[in-house]
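Hallway conversation turned thread

IA: we were arguing at lunch whether anyone had actually written out HMG box domain-containing protein end to end. Turns out nobody had. So, for the record, here is the sequence (278 residues) and right after it the structure tokens. Reply here if something looks off.
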Amino acid sequence: MNSLSNAFRISSCVFGGYKNILPGRSTWLRPIQICSYKKTAEERLGIEKPKRPLTPFFKFMAQMRPALLAKNPSISSKEAISWTSKHWQQLDIETKTQMTKEYEKDLEDYKKIKELYQSSLTEQQKEDIKKLKEEMAAAKEKRKLKAEYKELGRPKKSMSSYILYMMSRKDTSQANDFKSYQEKVKADWLQLPENERKKYEKQAQEQMNKYKKDLEGWEMKMISIGRSDLVRQKPTPKKSDKVSSMEKPNSITNSKTEQCQSTGAKNNYKQTEPNSNL
């Protein structure tokens, strides 16, 4: 009995017969999305990359998913994984061994196909993949940092005077085309009287001052709890600035030395100058 039959046998025991569940579900044989899926760099570039085979556990999950969804369509991914993990532990050793052997064979085939795929890539494609992967990694770190800021209560940056003006308008909800609306708001902002504009600029400055104060307090708190990695790094002076600052005292010292030397030379000259009265 193969692994698929065993999987259906388990679903039969749990749900009361898979034959009564699967009819009407015409998509159950299609590739199954187990978790939230994001495109790889190769897929974004339109390059077809061979996919690594599913491990025995995830293959078991893919086989059990149709029956599980039929019984509980609103089940979450977390609950589905928990349910699958529980029944995976109850699966007989014979089926697990067979699935492991199938996985090892699929893995060998995958490695061979991957070698052919790597050799078929051009240098430009390799460079594009590398660049895009770096961009995706940087974007992921940025999202992670943003989520961490939100969780730790980092103050939000204050709005500019222009944004405050835009938000104060009452015709925001009536805008159908946002791009055209933005152009209209920009034109109105440029034609706004000076006294009206100063009102928004003052409001923006007050919010900015509050933001800076709150941010400094938040950064002090982060330092106190050992999260100095979240604190802004102060700009370090350039090497040229250090050199120039070091040269200034030397130049002053040199000028003073030269002045002393010239004074001493004059005194020596006076001492050696013959007396005209003699």
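OS: looked through it. Confidence is low (pLDDT under 50) at residues 1-36, 242-278.
IA: good, adding that to the notes. The chain is about 70% helix and 0% strand.
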